[in-house]
Design goal:
By secondary structure, this protein is an alpha/beta fold. The chain is built from 21 helices and 11 strands. The protein has a domain of about 290 residues: Alpha-Beta Barrel (TIM Barrel).
């Protein structure tokens, strides 16, 4: 592939600045927990079930602990105390704590907590490991996709219809199937139970829904002889819980960003930073690939003027992911083809951004997002726009291409829309497969100058964020032109400072 001359000292300076930004936040994360982290711990230890009103037991228990000021030592501590007091199982202990008024006080050493939950911790880790081994074993016996991998979304609201559409998309050539999540589920502070058949703008992310789509993608893979990957959304107020569900159901990818919920869902930044860390610890163990959401920045800010914020955020997301144990091969950084299509030489500017990201993160599975901001009801123009997106993707070696739909601005894509998107992508990816290997960028040309300028601007942005701290930088609207307060947004009340005797043997092991 042709390459651009980039200043590697500047790139390394960007990495160092991102590391310092992430270290500052990590200090806060290590000193706090959240209701979401504690619910995830309970789920991992085997706590299941809902009450007659559909409220999950993990919520009822965590809410009691929070209400009585007992969450600071961790839900695991209370489970251990109940087990040591005679509860016959983790489930029995959880029910006694949630409904029976079991004791919430009393001295208990960290060693006592670890010992009481040793078998449950081992079982939780074994569930993740077994699901990963099953997924990787199944995948090994099938044909693997070529890059860019073709990613399409199904979103009917009914999980059973989604399963049918997922299989149809796989037979039409899709490599990755995403079930887009129901509108505003990220703002729910609980995870619905069971299969769901009603959702607006998408389908609810539940463990049973994950299982149903996993069954469909495995069936399609068996029928086609080609592995089909599955992804969903691990974001919002339940991002850690959803990561756990995805891990034990063997998903391949998860949308999981360190700042998306803060910027685009107004979820409190303290809550989000803590929850993303716990979710990514699980994801790292499960071998899942994350997809970050920098592409969204270009829906609220200009793709030319603010391209540098995408690169700066990618450095930061990468630094956060590394602190949670993710390997390069798991960090799917996002960006998008969102420059105004009527801007002269806009294609060259898009090419520069894509090539820049590819070179700065050469071992990462980069996720390349299609045009949406400038789509209209003109389906013919839309189809051409998507084809240009596909061309840049194959020229610059993007890893994951979320295919654009010509009906983007009209309705939720139909099966035929996906079929035509896949047909177009297969044509472009095939006919231009090695185009990038045959071309060189002109020294001093538009592409080279643009890439170098964006790198310079990203470096300046990171220096600014590091100087003032990411908390204040977000407050100033540095990213996506969106401003959020450190103590504002949804879920702030669910953040709790850890007590000196806080214990979470599962998170320690992860």
């Amino acid at each position: 592939m042709a390459t651009l001359p980039l200043d590697h000292e500047k790139i390394e300076r960007c990495r160092a600045l991102a590391a310092s930004i992430a270290d500052d936040v990590q200090g806060f994360i290590d000193a706090h927990t959240t209701v979401g982290v504690e619910r995830t711990t309970l789920r991992a230890y085997g706590v299941t079930g809902v009450d007659p009103d559909g409220v999950p037991l993990v919520n009822t228990l965590t809410d009691r602990l929070a209400r009585e000021g007992a969450l600071a030592v961790g839900a695991a501590t209370h489970l251990a105390r109940a087990l040591l007091a005679g509860a016959g199982s983790v489930q029995e202990a959880a029910e006694a704590l949630a409904y029976g008024g079991a004791e919430l006080t009393g001295e208990l050493s960290r060693a006592d907590v670890v010992g009481a939950l040793d078998d449950a911790t081992a079982d939780a880790l074994r569930r993740i490991d077994d699901a990963r081994a099953a997924r990787e074993g199944f995948r090994a016996g099938l044909r693997q996709p070529e890059s860019p991998e073709k990613y399409v979304i199904v979103a009917t609201g009914n999980i059973h219809d989604d399963a049918t559409q997922a299989k149809a998309a796989a037979h039409a050539g899709a490599d990755i199937i995403a079930v887009i999540r129901a509108t505003a589920q990220s703002l729910l502070d609980f995870v619905p139970e069971g299969a769901t058949t009603e959702g607006y703008g998408g389908t609810y992310a539940t463990q049973e829904n994950f299982r149903i789509i996993r069954e469909a993608t495995r069936a399609a893979a068996t029928e086609t002889g080609r592995y089909v990957q599955q992804t969903n959304y691990s974001s919002g107020l339940c991002m850690a819980e959803i990561a756990w569900m995805a891990a034990v159901e063997g998903l391949d990818m998860l949308l999981n960003d360190a700042m998306y919920g803060i910027l685009f869902r107004d979820i409190n930044m303290c809550r989000t930073f803590c929850d993303q860390y716990a979710s990514r610890r699980i994801i790292a163990r499960a071998g899942i690939v994350i997809n970050t959401g920098e592409d969204n920045y270009l829906t609220t800010s200009d793709a030319v003027d603010k391209a540098y914020t995408v690169l700066a955020s990618q450095f930061i997301n990468d630094a956060f992911a590394r602190r949670a144990g993710l390997a390069d091969s798991q960090i799917g950084l996002g960006h998008a083809f969102e420059i105004d299509p009527w801007l002269e030489d806009g294609f060259l500017l898009e090419l520069a951004q894509a090539q820049l990201v590819r070179q700065v993160f050469p071992r990462h599975p980069i996720k390349w997002m299609p045009p949406t901001k400038h789509k209209t009801g003109d389906v013919f123009q839309s189809h051409v726009h998507d084809a240009m997106f596909n061309l840049v993707g194959v020229m610059t070696g993007q890893s994951i291409a979320l295919l654009g739909m010509f009906s983007e601005a009209i309705h939720t894509p139909l099966l035929m829309d996906r079929y035509l998107a896949l047909k177009s992508a297969k044509y472009v990816f095939g006919t231009a497969r090695h185009l990038g290997d045959e071309l060189a960028f002109r020294p001093g040309g538009v592409v080279e100058r643009r890439a170098q300028a964006v790198l310079d601007e990203a470096l300046a942005c990171l220096e600014d964020v590091a100087a003032r701290g990411i908390w204040d930088a977000i407050g100033a609207g540095v990213f996506a032109d969106v401003k959020r307060r450190r103590d504002g947004g949804k879920g702030f009340g669910g953040v709790v400072a850890r007590a000196p005797d806080y214990a979470n043997p599962l998170l320690d092991r992860l």
